[in-house]
């Protein structure tokens, strides 16, 4: 029987082994999938849309967390048996996971679209999936790993705390770590549940031989099982199979196969307008019927309990569908009125995912001809998420609106400013357009709103709210340098913010620093400006130019620490030029 110290060591050892396996999965995503797709010419916009900030996550775990865990558990455990202090270092990086989880649904959509519409993308992914390192798992399965990792930390920490003595010096750090990680785990668990539903739908889709296109985030499998169909001619029982979804019932005929069992869809019945009821037939027990708009089926369960269960779950699904439909109609009535006033030409430019080649040709994903009018499917894609915050819309808590100035699709939170127009009515505009609108004489409310928004956007960049800040010249692509206000806020010590001139009205650009390398330009990189340094990560390089060597060295020192995740020391001794 293990002693308590031995149990704690076993938990620590499990954490180390799972972390090693996790870093291998991150390497597969960042250094194999991401790199190979980039080499195949897939556009950077599509790759970023799929893999989000996976490079930063991989860098943190591979270069910082895993080495620290390995040193502590394999070399120092006998004299310093604790985990809480190391896991607390996860806290500043939870925002990176939040960004990855928030982007997860969109990433899945992009992968599915690319697999269907881009031959180069599909070929690269399938070739990698055949390799032993993939373990016969799909890209989507591996993309779920970062989402699952945070809940795994939570479970291990809970187990660790149960066995940790109350007087242990590690208890305070471990409890603080658990508190921070549990909050992030809630978001990951929601994404995991969605992914599990999608995997279940994919399994059913394959069992149906691809006859019905059911793999859709809106679909949910409620119940499935064998059932007997009573023949209307002679009353004989025939073996059938039912799939009950939240929006339909699939009535299927089993098709026996050597490996596994597949089904052929005989009838598709919409939940809308469906009726289910118990029936009494002489000499036939456990019977009930379901009646749709086109057909009625008399069915027989194996037991009375099974019959009641089918009737109850079908009836509950019908009622829930009715409630959802009524709620949607109520919200959609006012919603559609606003849609009518938006001309097609006012929709913003199409996304990079929609510029993929169709069925007519191969080639890498690339940009589309900007002179072509966006197709309806492209415009519909853009209406699914807010232009400003990128959060997905729904008909209840996240309704869509339109900027009356530029036509962009935005949410209520990002369109709260309503300047008075010529007709003296308040109109919704996005924050970017609001800042560019000319002030109306005598309209005090608009002026105050405008001031409030400007103050809101600049507060995070103010020198007094930052660890360090200054003006720098900035270059990302091309040959043009831009003057930027660059700052690291006290509230986000691992994020660099860039802000252009106050006239451009754009929001500050955040750059999560973990995973970047800070260095001077290489011998082959020549610039007209002086005191240049650069940030490099994976396929991205950002150049900065300071006004003197002292400022250049100061920024390089600060950024190097932040890139390593050193938050406590970053603020020490920092001044503002």
Describe this structure as you would to a colleague.
By secondary structure, the chain is of the alpha+beta class. The protein folds into 4 domains: 4-207, Dbl homology (DH) domain (Dbl Homology Domain, Chain A), CATH 1.20.900; 221-312, Pleckstrin-homology domain (PH domain)/Phosphotyrosine-binding domain (PTB) (PH-domain like), CATH 2.30.29; 344-361 and 373-456, Zinc/RING finger domain, C3HC4 (zinc finger) (Herpes Virus-1); 460-563, Roll (PH-domain like), CATH 2.30.29. It contains 15 helices and 16 strands. The strands form 3 sheets. Strands 4-3-2-1-7-6-5 form a 7-stranded antiparallel β-sheet. The chain has a 7-stranded antiparallel β-sheet with strand order 13-12-11-10-16-15-14, covered by helices on one side. Helix 2 crosses helix 6 (104-117), helix 5 packs parallel to helix 10 and helix 9 crosses helix 10 (171-207). It starts with a helix and ends in a 14-residue tail after the last helix. 28% of the residues are buried. One of its GO terms (cellular component) is cytoplasm. It is found in: Cytoplasm, Cytoskeleton. It comes from Menura novaehollandiae (superb lyrebird). One of its GO terms (molecular function) is zinc ion binding. Residues 380-438 form the FYVE-type domain.
Number of strands: 16
Helix and strand content put the structural class at alpha+beta
Overall shape: globular
Mean pLDDT score = 78
The CATH superfamily of the largest domain turns out to be Dbl homology (DH) domain
- Helical coverage, percent range: 40-55%
Tell me the count of domains.
4
Major beta-sheet overview: 7 strands, antiparallel
| CATH class category name of the largest domain | Mainly Alpha
- Number of H/I helices: 15
Low-confidence stretches: 334-382, 420-424, 439-446, 450-457, 568-576
Radius of gyration: 29 Å
CATH fold node name of the largest domain: Dbl Homology Domain, Chain A
Strand order of the largest sheet: 4-3-2-1-7-6-5
State the CATH architecture of the largest domain.
Up-down Bundle
